[in-house]
Structure formats: structure tokens, C-alpha cells
UniProtKB/TrEMBL annotation:
The name this protein goes by in its record: Esterase
InterPro entries in UniProt: 6-hairpin_glycosidase_sf (IPR008928), 6hp_glycosidase-like_sf (IPR012341), Bac_rhamnosid6H (IPR035396)
Superkingdom, natural source: Bacteria
GO biological process terms held by the UniProt record: carbohydrate metabolic process
Domain Alpha-L-rhamnosidase six-hairpin glycosidase: 372-454
Pfam families registered for this protein in UniProt: Bac_rhamnosid6H (PF17389)
Amino acid sequence: MLGCDSTKIKEKTNLDNKLVQTEKMLYLRGAFNGWGTANPFQALSANQYRTEIEVTPGNFGFKVATADWSQEWVVNPDAIEIIMLGKAYTLQQHKAPEDALFTAQAGRFEFILDFNHADKPSLVVNKVVRDSGKQKDPHQGRTETLSVDYRTFDNKIHSVVYSVADKQAPLRQFAQSTTAVLRDIGPPYAEYSELADFPRVSTGNLEFDALFALAINEMTYLSVAQINDGNYNAGKSIDCDCFKTGEKWAYVWTRDLAYAADLNLALLDPQRVVNSLKFKTSEFRKDNKVASSVYGKDGLQIIQDTGSGGSWPISTDRVTWAFGAERVLNSLAGDARQAFVLHAFDALRNTIENDRVAAFDPIDGLYTGEQSFLDWREQTYATWIVDDLTYMASSKALSTNVAHYQAIKLTAALAEELNQPHLANKYTTWAKALKVAINQKLWIKEQGLYSSLTAGHFAGLPLNKFDWLGQSLAIMTGIAEPQQATKILSSYPHGPMGAPVIFPQQPNIPVYHNRALWPFVTAYGLSAATKAKHVAAADEAYKTLIRGAALNLSNMENLEWLSGQAMWLQMDIPAESGPVINSKYQLWSVAAYLNLVIDNVFGLKQEKNKLKFEPFITQYLANRFFQQAKQIQLTNLSYKGKTLDITIKLPTQKLDDKEAGYYSIQQVTLNGVKRDGYIEEGSLLASNEIVITLGQLIASSDSVTLVNALPGEHTPKVYAPLEPSLKLLSDTSKDGTKTLEVIVRDDYADNSNRLHSSDLKLTLYRNGRKTIEDQSIAITTQAKRNLVDVKYIVGEANCYSATIVNQFGNHSHQSYPICVDVYQEINVDDRRFTSNKSVQQPNSNQPYHYVASWGAVDDSAAFNDITIDNQSHVAFQLAYHNDKHVIGQGITSGVKRLVMRDAKGTIVSEGVVQLPHGKAKQGLKPKLYSTPIQAFLPAGVYSIEVQDFFNMSYLTKNQTFTSAGGLTGAENQFDLIGLKISPSF
């Protein structure tokens, strides 16, 4: 029951075995305020409380919650509810899908909580009308202005006006205004100045100079002395001279920081990057026993942030930390560098060693785990994945594997530097083998692209799903050979506003990762294009990044991919609007713009103790921004305590836009002396003049693949079909045949205004290999059922899955695998199971025997007398349910080690299994199965002992996490139900 005094709720807390009643504030938390605590509820009367927020058009998810998220209140615990104005809704306490406020017009809204009936509190939302007052003209009295028009997808014009107070001033003062609709409420202009302690750009083009100054200013907005997040330290500030993640994201997140550091923050503020990277490493908690099989128990681990299924190793892209670490190591000198070398080597070595145990598949040589940064399951995975996250955990992702490659390679280099050649050789061997595996297992020659991810266990093949970050990182790290790089850059689909982060798009899903441009991903695409000298892809990236910063007065978190807007309203289906959250001056977006200028236009490339300059100025870029300039300059750039002033001398004659290409580099000089290749650090003075003279245009005829569609258009040329589903219909017949029903859903059949997929074709897989390929399927506006007879081979693994492809070549995700195999299952009520904890009886919520909350430090469990009749490949999975947290968050994924012994007690196989959080359905806790470990065993009798490993709750820096695994101690527990033994392949 919810009870209130002033603006607080009462909560009973167990402190020192005494129940103490505490009071906590309630806040309106949602996409409009970064899910933060800027909007507390204030008392209107004895039982009514109110808060107010102003928003632009959009669909904004929200909840009523405490600062530490210990209590959350929503209208509908089962689905997102779009709130109607003026209607009273009863609230329920539940960590459930949020509610949503949809508005087609900007406005101010009040949220009123009513506690006249304390057991049924209610919420009413109303619109508030106020006079906004007269708008200021930021350009009044300015000496120079520039107006730039940007055409929209529907042939309208948005104008951006720039002005400067005094263009001759040492530090120019800029103003920037826009006619575009902004994502957040605020003035339609921004004012900012060049800063004395940071680099400046002078090109003769007011827009180009101003936008660089804007990005520098936004970097300083993100440079903070304290960070905070409601999930940590009870929402109170934590001291850290760090980079926070964005206007709406006040914490440090591993992947955001790492990519941003790599894109340029490490060069511009190396010490703050070091502080931030160190904040994302941790020792193990001293109050918790750590298993002997864990590597580096007395050292550091890189932190995998709270996430899918309980975090690591469901997600393993904590290794992206290495991208930022390498860039900052190249920006440090002397004792500061040496100190960070030791810190980085310790954290990286311990991390990659434990990832090798928990997330490496020796069968195909790849690492398991969720896609890097694409960490909202519904956005990029099959619709069924939320009901069984083990399949996401056992899948392999391109971006994450490239990050592992980067981490292993950097660890090898640091080992060499620290005079440990045996480790350098070991990790170099790992890295080389991983590069080979990525190219063998994930490269799809017919598409000219890498697969973004494979299906999970018992399927395993690469999917025809593609992401721009993974492709770009493969090019940047050298995993892709030059011919592959060119093919990728030409093949990856672009929209009229740039390259989306994934392709094809997911039907029936709002804009966030789906249907979106992310500037930092675009920046990696730009760097990949400049490395490969791919003019068309580079020009598209230049346009995307500049347009986004210009129209939105900030480097936004993300944009809808076909309109380029910071909020796209899907009027026919409001729930598909988005991006569902979008922050101004997002850290990696700011870094992306700085990277555009410093790394690509001015061409600065960093390596250990040396620099190289390879500016990539295309014909489009020269004509668009530098038409009147003889030279452009980047000045006051600090590098290891020295100052660099960089001048690029442009060709005197610029060709028209019809002749595409980029300008060659004729000469590079350092302080008047010609340089060939690299500039060694030792040759730099306190102040340095670097002059790059461009030569002739190198013509280019390359192109990108364009997808012409309108935003919000429900066309199968943009979207993938929904994945089919399989159902087993009959028992085994005499000839070993089973009948599968393949159900193909028309993804657009619910709306007559949508375009329907046609010419669908089915591919059926058995154990990851095709058994039926490209079988045509008729489809109507109703679900179409197709009966397929499949051969069942007794005694072997027989796991079936299916995909469909539409007439534009867009493939669905795989169906949920159906396994028709012979297997054993030893439940915990079986005599062959032993444990020091008691077995619970079935009940209405858990209709099976189980050991409740098994897996604490002193818990034991073993499965004995396991009979394997014939020599065979066998898979082992624990049956379990883990409800320590919701499926999208937390740090309490179950992570255990299975040790198999033969009749003599000899260890014959061992491995780590993952047991992610699961969803209850109508109060029922379903039985789930862990990720498998596989072994080739001769006939015999075996036993399996379940031992502890670790999860992210074991780390010291998660001690203040407010949910499971934090304040109350490390947790690696779940309800243990049994062991499944099945044929493998």
C-alpha cells in the first residue's frame, strides 16, 4: 500500500534486524528528463501532489518512482499504456513497462497524484496553458551572419543562422539559431564562444568554425566533478573528475566512455579520460569469497554495466574499454603514461582471461554476448528473445567480437612493453585466431557485409542482419581486408539522411536503435571510409554529422534515420514514434563531431610516440565549406604538453560537384622541415607549425547503396519480416518423420494502410544447416500455416529453426528453435541429485520441484550417476528460474561452472553456464534452461558438480547498487530445478 505524508512515501527497511520506517520522495521520471529526479512531486493538499513538465512533440515513456528506483508505479504492469489527458488512472507498484505521454504539439503538462484512497492511488495528466513571452533575437547587433538552408524529406526548408560578434576577436563569440523543431523545450538558439584552453578552427566558413566551437563547449559541459545515477549510491552524487554521458545521463558508462575517448576525447583531455576509465574498473568485494577458478582475484576487472539479463556475461562488450585505453595511452607521456600502462594491463589481462572462460566458444573461435551498444533486446533481436535470454547470451555478435579482438591485441602490446614476451605471444596468437574466425564465420560474401550476429545455441549460423558500428570497427581494426572494406562501404544501406545503425529495420518497434542514426556510429563509418579512401561513404557521413549538429543546436544522442529528426511522430501508431529518449550533447556524439574535424578533415592519426597527418578533404567538402579559402587552420591543439598549429593549404582551383574525389597530399612540413610519413614525438618543440599542402584531386567513382523511402512508411524494402514460429504436430512415425507447422505472420496485416510483404520464401535449418531453402510461401492478411515434413534421426540432435526473406532480400530473425531430440532430465527431486539445501515442493507459481535461491557461497549441488549409453557429443544445461531483477537490467545474471567427472573421479570436461533473468507470466515462473556446455564423451557413467564463478555483483564498485547484488551483498543465486542432458552437434 502507498501512504504519504508530505511528498514522501513510507517504506519499511530492515536495518540491523529491526524494521525501520523511512520516507522517500516520489519523482516523475521519464524520457523527457533522462529518467532522472529533476521533477519531484510537491504537495497540493493533504492527499494530492503535483509536478509539471514542458515537452516538445513526441511519445515520452515515464514512471512514478523513488530516487533509488526501490519503488516504481505504473498504470499497466503488462504493457505500455499511452495516457489520455484528463482521465484518472489507478497506479500499481510494479517494475513493468513504463507508461507514455503522447503529444503532437509542444506544451506544458501537469501530473497529479491523488491519495484519497491510499490503497488505490491515482494519476491524472492535464495540459497547462501559459504565455511563453517574447523570444530574444540572438543575432541582433552581430557583425557577420550566415544563413544555411537544409531541405527536409518532404521538400520543406529549415534554416540555420550563424552570427559572430567580432570575427577578428582572439576568441570569437557565436550565436546559432534554427527553425527546426527541437527535441527539448528551450530557446531555438544557442550562444557559445571559443575557449582559450582548447583548439580552435578557422576556415573562413562561419558554419564550420561555429559547429566545432559548439562541440568543444559541449565537451566542457560534460566535464564534471561529480556523477550520479539513481541505481547507485541511493542517487547521491559520487566524486569523480570524469566525463558524464550526456545532458540526461549523469553517470559514466563503460562503452559510451570508451568509444567517445577513442573518437577524440582522449587527445583533448587525457587525464579526465584516465579518471573515467579507472572509474569503470573494479576490484572484487572483500566481503565475498571468490572461486579459485576466477582469474585475477586480487586484481582489477573492467565493469560491464547493468544490463540485459543481469549483465555480464550475457553482455560482454565491457572490452570496448580497450578502444579508449589505447587512444589515451597514445596521448599520455612519462610517469602518467607508465602508471596507466600498469593499470590497463592488469584490468585488461584479468578481463580477457575470465572472458575466455565464460564467453569463448572453442568450437567456432568466437566470443558470445549481446551486440555492443545495441543493448535493448526488443530493438534488434527476435521478438521471442525476451522470454529466453540464454539464446542471446550464446549468440555471437560482430561488434562485440571486434571489441574482444581490440582488447586482446592491446593486452599483447602492453605485455610486450612490460617485457613479458610469453604473454605477448599468447595473446597475439589469440588475436590472430579471432580475426580468422570472424572472417570465416561472420563474413557473408553474397552480401558484401559481415553478419551482425549469429543465432544462439542449437542453431548458430550467421544471420542476414547488419549493423554499421560492427562493419566500421572491422575496417578500423584491420579485421576487414582492403577489398572487404571497399565492398562493405559500398554495400551497407544508406537512407537520404545517412546510414542507420542497423539494417533491415524491425517492424512494430519504436525508434531508438531501430530506425535510427547515431552520430558516434556515423563517425566510425566516416573514419572507416577515410581509411579506405571511399569518397561516397565519407561524404554521406560528413553530411549526416554536420546537418544533425546544425539543425538541433547540439550533438544529439540519436535521430530518426529517414527524416533526420530528433523526434519523429508516427501519427498512425504513436507507440512507434521516437527516438524514445534523446539527450543533448551526448558524450560520444560530441566526440563524433570533434573526430570529424580533427581526425578526418585535418587527418591527425595517433600511434605510440608518433603522429601522422592524412587529411581526407573531398570535393564535396571543399566546395561546400572551403570554396573561398586558400587555407584552413586548426590551432592551439595540445599534445603531450606541446602545442600544435595545423594548416592545410587548399588547391587554388576547386572543381564542380559533378566530379567526385578527394585531394591528394602533396607535402607535409614540421616547423618548415619536410616530413615523410610519421612525425616522431621527439622531433616536436614546445610550439609547432605543421603545414599540409594538398595536391590534385583523385577522382572517385565509388557509391553507396541507397534505400529510398519516406519516414514512417511501412514498406518491406525497409523492414525485415517478422520471424516465423515452429510447432511440432505429430509423434515420430515409423520412417522417422516428424511434421512441423511453420507459422508465418504478416507483419503489416493489422493495418490496411501498410504495405504487405509478398513473395516470401522460407528456409528451414536442422542443427544450423539448411534442409529446405527458399521455399515460396503464399501469405494472406491472416497468419499463414505451412506444414513441413522433416526427417527425425533417432539418437542425434534434431533442432529446427526457420527464417523467411521478403521480395527486397530482407531476412527475418530465426524462429525459436524446436528441438526434437532424445534427452535426459535429472530433476532436483531425483535421488541422483545432492545438495546441502532442501528441495521445495511444487506450487501454483512454480509447478516443479526446486531448490530456492540456490548458489550462495556455501551452497553445494551435484548430479550423479549420469549414464551416457553411446560415445557421442553431449550438451548439458541447468534447468532454473532467475527472478532477481527484470530482464533489461541488473547485475545478477547466474554464472556457474559445471565440472564433469568420470567414474574414476577424473575431470573430463568443464565450462561456465549462464542463467539470465527470466520473466514471470501471469504469476507463473517458467522453467528455463541455461546456456549449454558441450562435450564429446565415451559411453560411461559421469557426475557433474555445480561450482561458483562470478558475476558483476562481486565487484566492489557495485556495492552501492540499490537493487539485487548491491547493498545487500553479492548475489549469484537462482531457483535450481534440474539438469538437462541432450545430444549435441
